[in-house]
Amino acid sequence: MEDYEVTPDEKRKTRGDQIIKTFLSNQSPQRVDIAEVFADQCRENLELSPCKEIFSNCHKVVHDYLSGDPFLDYQNSMFFDRFLQWKMLERQPITKDTFRQYRVLGKGGFGEVCACQVRATGKMYACKKLEKKRIKKRKGESMALNEKQILEKVNSRFVVSLAYAYETKDALCLVLTLMNGGDLKFHTYNMGTPGFERDRVQFYAAQICCGLDHLHRESIPIRGRVGTVGYMAPEVINNEKYSMCPDWWGLGCLIYEMTAGRSPFRARKERVKREEVERRVQEEEEEYSDKFTEDTKAICRALLTKDPRQRLGCRADGAAGVKAHTFFKNINFKRLEAGIVEPPFVPDPRAVYCKDVLDIEQFSTVKGVNLDQTDTDFYSKFATGCVSIPWQNEVGVTAEHDIC
């Protein structure tokens, strides 16, 4: 059914006929045992209009059926015993010895980010290290725990996934999805002329839009008070109450920067005080060069509207209003969310899209900070081991590879 929903409109009827023939036909060995009336409804609706919701009733009926006797049979089978064995394996303690550590990739707010590899499966990740003494010195305990809990909660292809959380003697460690292709900032400024062609800007902006949509559905905002200078919305600078609106301002800043090769309120490497940048954000209008098409200008202006009540994304239609903007007219968001849209740029798997190790500044040693029992109690809330869905995906892929 998921495949049917992301099938292009012109091919959807053919795909629907295949589903009916395979699962709803009396002659099919794979027939699903549901009331014939639902199967007839699907056939009729498919002939009238092959919309995305045709099989939704069937989906619910099958779910209800499987929740009954088939699920009881499953609980009494060897397959359920095997499931419990996997859950026990999933809950094994995670330590630094679970991983091999590789080169430094960059820096976070509280420590380095390194590449790492799970010894048992060979899966590569990024390990974000939060130095315990640095956290305590900056009173960043709630921020660190909040980041961990948010990443643990969200399961989206557009948001970095947390796979493991553990501690060492000196650091709290978040093991995250490894982005081999590098980050947007690196590609924007280090791969030729600063900025991207329109199709790349559109593709990346659409993905970010989906990520914000998924986070906002969980009531999780991104761009808070402690945001990046030049990306903070006017309402944040003015210390006003806000919800998700600053995130759409941030998307406007990113679209502008990816297009122009500079942020909207500060030139690249411009030496300017924070107060001056904040004044520009509050008082000045961004300028547009000939790199901007009319619809790119339009979406930037709509997202960079200083009044959050009038800003695109902050109205009643929310993320749907952003997705409906003419800037995204060539994007099929259903197919994008399914991960089947061809990207305009594919990173070279042999290339390293990050700074040289020698160019990454090292953190200074934190002095005068002692850890006590209160800190130990906090660490126990943080170091919870595996996160179920990423771990199951990792082990499942490994098992499939071994079978093949």
UniProtKB/TrEMBL annotation:
Residues 1-84 form the RGS domain. One of its GO terms (molecular function) is rhodopsin kinase activity. Residues 267-294 form a coiled coil. It comes from the Eukaryota. ATP binds at K137. The keyword S-adenosyl-L-methionine does not apply. Residues 329-394 form the AGC-kinase C-terminal domain. It is an enzyme of class 2 (transferase). Residues 99-328 form the Protein kinase domain. Gene3D superfamilies: Phosphorylase Kinase, domain 1, Regulator of G-protein Signalling 4, domain 2, Transferase(Phosphotransferase) domain 1. Its EC number is 2.7.11.-. Belongs to the protein kinase superfamily. AGC Ser/Thr protein kinase family. GPRK subfamily. This is G protein-coupled receptor kinase.
